[in-house]
Amino acid sequence: GPGPRYQSPNQVSWTVDNFINILKYNIDHNIPIYGYEFGNEPNLFQAKMKLDISAEQYAIDFYLFMKTLKQYAPSIKAIGIDLDYIPSSWHIQTFDELFLKTLKNMTNGQYMPDIMTYHFYPLISNKTSSIPEPYLATANKLLNPYYLNQIGKLSHDLSILYHDKYGLEEIWLGESASSEGGGQLGVSDRFIDGIEWIDKLGQTAYNKHSLVFRQTFCRSPDNHSYNYALIWNQTPRPSYYIAALYTQLVEPFFLNITTNQNGDTIRSYATCSSTYKGGVVLIIISLNEELSIT
Description:
- The chain has helices at residues 17-28, 45-49, 55-72, 94-107, 145-165, 192-206, 238-249; strands spanning 5-8, 11-14, 35-37, 77-85, 115-120, 123-124, 170-176, 179-180, 211-214, 218-219, 231-232, 235-236, 250-255, 266-273, 280-286.
- It has 294 residues and is α/β, with parallel strands linked by helices.
- A 5-stranded parallel sheet has the order 3-4-5-7-9.
- α6 packs parallel to α7 (238-249).
- The chain is globular and about 60 Å long.
């Protein structure tokens, strides 16, 4: 049948037919669904698919998506829009603001996303055709506060936009790893990757993000393009254990703490414990080879 969009010289719009079929199938078969996400990296449609869709048009499409979802399955979350924030660019993109502004004005705020999502990687692998130096992933850069702080700045700014300005309840970092383009061999698949990973979990939690999704969970041994996978050939990599411990120990209640060290080389995060009532989980990362934190 027809795809989700049809294109004419003067119009590009999303069609709802396939989505209704999916909704009906899942309802008829009692398949539990937490949420449906609308699209993936719409700000890259032009570059990747030669599909020119404005933020205003995307807001119109999202309204149709959400109205249909609420008609057939009102309890299921409407998720979007997974904008891609590239390394070196942690400022809020025009697409994001125009989409939310248009959607709010068009629907009087009645059809805003239940969960807002985006993608971010601080560095780039050498499999990417164009690498804006100095963003080629290396082990040393994962210990550099300049690169680690990018997600902190972006998640802070997006929290203000999504939570404070538009009143959206929940934010997900919907896709992330230490480097995009499949991850960097010898970096994304090593212990050093875990430093960036746990620091990112701390910074996003501090900035009111509910979930962080790792790209990617596992890969097969005959696929050598996903160096950022947490599991390879049924063997967990170091960052897998960080994710597992964090999930088991941490409650989604972040505590404000500060260190008395100058600069960003001592990084600390604290949350409520999920295993001990009244307990606290403390995460301390030292990027300073000469300073002990014990």
